[in-house]
Amino acid sequence: SDPVVVGQILSQIRDAVLPKPSPDESLAHERVEDALAAQRTVALLRTEARLHKNAAERCEVVMKRLHDAEQRVAERGEDDSRFRRSVIQPVETELEKKIKLAEKKSKLAKQKESEFVYLRRKANSTVAIIMKDTEIAFNKAFQAVLYSLNGVQSANGVYKICSDIDQYHKEKKTNNYRQPVPEEFDPCSPEYLQWLREEASMLLDDKSEFKDLVNYIAREYNGEAVLAPIKGYKRTVEKVQEKYSGDSSRILDLARGMVVFDTIGQLSDALKYIKIRNDAQLSTTANGKPLLVRAKDRISPVFDASKNTGGYRDILLNLCFSSGHTVELQLHIASFLDLKNRRGHRVYEEARSIHMFNEAFTKLSYNWRVDSSPEEVEELLDEIRSGAITSLNLDYSEALWSLEAQSRLAEAMNAKECRLQDISLRSCFCGDDFLVKCLPLDDAELWSPENDHGHVGRVVRLGSKLHEGTGGRISSLGITRLVRYLNGSLRVLDLQGCLDLDWYENCGDGVANALLQLAEEMESDNFLLLPQLQELNLKSTGLTPDGMDTLQLLKRRGHLSRVNILTDDKLRTGLPRCIEKTYLGSTIIEH
Q1: Is the CB of residue 429 less than 8 Å from the CB of residue 459?
Q2: In angstroms, how far is the first alpha carbon of the chain from the final one?
Q3: How many Cβ atoms from other residues are within 10 Å of residue 590's Cβ?
Q4: Under DSSP, is residue 426 helix (H, G, I), strand (E, B) or coil?
Q5: Which residues of 99-108 are buried (b: 16+ CB within 10 A; e: fewer)?
Q6: Residues 294-303: pLDDT tens digits?
Q7: Is there a contact between 528 and 489 (Cβ–Cβ < 8 Å)?
Q8: For the segment 475-491, what is each residue's pLDDT rounded down to a tens digit?
Q9: What dihedral angle (degrees, nearest 10) is formed by the CA atoms of 12, 13, 14, 18?
Q10: What strand order describes the sheet that includes 292-297?
Q11: Among 138, 327, 316, 308, which Cα is nearest to 251's?
Q12: Helix or strand or coil: residue 232?
């Protein structure tokens, strides 16, 4: 009956029964270790180079003073050769030595950095395959939760509560979360961290407020309560140094507990109860101190789980009790936690260690010119193929005006290891032909939670902004293919300035009609159209009032509920302008 003991027993059981790493996982681990070893060597060489450079700078300061002294000796008419030989020359020798050492270490660091980039790419290509499989499994589990009884309503309720909590702390300017710091301690000292760990351990005692709350929630809302041991000292120190610059008062998850639920409805009800207790405490406490100091919503559709957590979803709450100490309470869905325990967390840790969730490493902008060197282009395509980048901006790349370049890009995107989630191809003429190449899907195959391609394409920009008429040529068939492939994951679809494949303008109406047809097909299977879509940009696409009415109809039927639809201030009326076309035996010229 003791959640702490339950947590320890479950950990032992998992270690005993979990499957051993597969050959792919073992290879990925080996390559990650090689990349991390190279990274550590680079960091060491850079540190040594910096130390030698600092020593050289100190020598230069001394040299300046010695030269001033030498000048004063010469002004007095004394023989300065002895002074130069015995004092200045040794310092000059030391200065040259430090400068050479600094240059040597910098050069070695640069060489080793090239090796690290190569090893990281190799590790990426191995981890990315496992990551994609894990992300797909997580995404399927999420779709099953979302389409369960009252799943969407419960997810929306979670989003509303977490948003209200964040908004409250922003308005009160109380979102600078810290642990209490007694006057006798420095928050950066080891003594303070030790005191903090002792305080956190008291919150896991039998009669603590935290333990009582966790047990009550589990009992009342059909969950399973587990209190984890205090966060390990080594991991705590690493986190404090990496994220908080040594300030231990900013770490809020030393004491942790979790409640696991079978359904998102149970989780939502438990969160509502915590919110009610928080509101009651605000109204009855003299200083209005809240129970809930932070809520991380990582379960509603607006959260991009693949980009941030490798697909895993949960709710993270930070609760502040009467002692002033803040703890972390995690609310989990059993199906997600099962996947995480089997392999998800292990893969996530490996991916995080080689910066697969760090935008500084995974975001790339490149102008692919006609005269770009073959080496540069091949390196770009290698980055895409290996899964090293997740966000790619190729806006205004003239080379992509050719079908050959589009084919090379699509081929790289179709690599098994590719993890591209955000692609911007504004003013690149990428339309139906490109979509057919980069989305290898049978036109008759409709999206479903069991057949989801949510590991790619969360943000797709195919329009134009600066150069009118250079957006993609997209027909309703192209949009149908795009939505069928990415329905469960697409977050932003930017078609500003896109043109219809057949008509010169009026792409917007084609998009609206294609979405309506897809919605009708999905309604027959009780699915939602684009449940995670947040922005649909149809500016300069010739959208007419009829097309806008179609989009509003979709909203009334429960689709596109959170979508911000961007359109022109004045919708097009009358016939669309078109190039000369033969239609039903008659010639239509520009109108």
Answers
A1: no
A2: 78
A3: 9
A4: coil
A5: bebbeebbeb
A6: 899 998 877 8
A7: no
A8: 878 888 888 778 777 88
A9: 130
A10: 224-227, 256-261, 326-333, 315-320, 292-297
A11: 327
A12: coil
Structure-block tokens of residue 484: 């069928």
Residue 175: pLDDT band by 50, 70, 90 thresholds? low
Identify whether the C-beta of residue 223 lies closer than 8 Å to the C-beta of residue 270.
yes
Q: What is the pLDDT of residues 342-395, one digit of tens each?
A: 766 777 777 877 777 778 888 889 999 999 999 999 989 988 888 888 889 999
User: Which of 347, 365, 367 lies closest to 356 in space, CA to CA?
Assistant: 347
Instruction: Answer whether 368's CB lies under 8 Å from 399's CB.
Output: yes
Q: What are the b/e assignments for 350-362, b being 16+ CB within 10 Å?
A: bbeebbbbeeebb
Is 192 in contact with 248 (CB distance < 8 Å)? yes
Strands 492-494 and 459-461: parallel
pTM (2 d.p.): 0.68
Q: How many CB atoms lie within 10 A of CB 200?
A: 24
Q: Which residue bears the tokens 């979102």?
A: 175
Tokens of 445: 């195959």
Show the tokens assigned to 85. Answer: 């030989």
How far is residue 181's CA from residue 33's CA, in Å, rounded to a whole number? Answer: 38
Q: Which of 323, 319, 209 is nearest to 275 (CA)?
A: 319
- Count CA atoms within 13 Å of residue 418 on its CB side: 25
3-class SS shares of the chain: helix, strand, coil, % to 5: 55, 10, 35
Checking DSSP bridges between strand 224-227 and strand 422-424, what pairing results, if any? unpaired
Using an 8 Å Cβ cutoff, are 271 and 161 in contact? yes
Considering Cα of 451, then 453, then 454, then 460, what sign does the dihedral take?
A: negative
